[in-house]
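Figure 3 (text version): structure tokens given as input.
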């Protein structure tokens, strides 16, 4: 019987030491229920009960499901395997194409405006003498014999 008590005492001390070390090594923001310092004091003041409570209620949980470990989803290793990177590339291409289309349209509009201005400048210079010729021709008809001269008072 004394051997069993000695074994139980050694086991209890080992569990308490392990619980203290586990508490100290855990990250402050991952500890559950109460603060890390409160857990440390609970384990020290109530050794067996505190250690048991630490393992049940305070110890940070492992990430992911318990049981056999499933392989994590494969992370992209190269930029061309990353969907976010590819989406970003596609967005950049689309924006560049839109910008080039806008610039092309602006350039075409400038060229059309320049042609219209040139046509107006040339047209007014050519139209003015042509109009004067018509008026002069009508005026000559007025002076001469013809029906056009008879209609004007």
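Below: residues designed for each position.
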């Amino acid at each position: 019987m004394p051997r069993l008590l000695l074994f139980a005492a050694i086991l209890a001390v080992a569990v308490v030491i392990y619980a203290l070390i586990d508490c100290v090594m855990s990250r402050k923001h991952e500890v559950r229920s109460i603060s890390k310092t409160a857990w440390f004091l609970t384990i020290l003041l109530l050794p067996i009960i505190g250690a048991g409570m630490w393992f049940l209620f305070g110890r940070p949980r492992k990430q992911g499901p318990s049981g056999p470990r499933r392989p994590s989803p494969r992370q992209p290793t190269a930029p061309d395997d990353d969907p976010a990177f590819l989406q970003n590339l596609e967005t950049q291409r689309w924006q560049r194409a839109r910008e080039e289309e806008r610039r092309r349209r602006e350039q075409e509009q400038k060229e059309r405006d320049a042609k219209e201005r040139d046509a107006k400048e040339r047209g007014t210079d050519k139209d003015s003498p042509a109009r004067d010729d018509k008026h002069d021709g009508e005026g000559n008809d007025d002076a001469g014999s013809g029906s056009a001269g008879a209609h004007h008072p």
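The first helix runs from residue 2 to 25.
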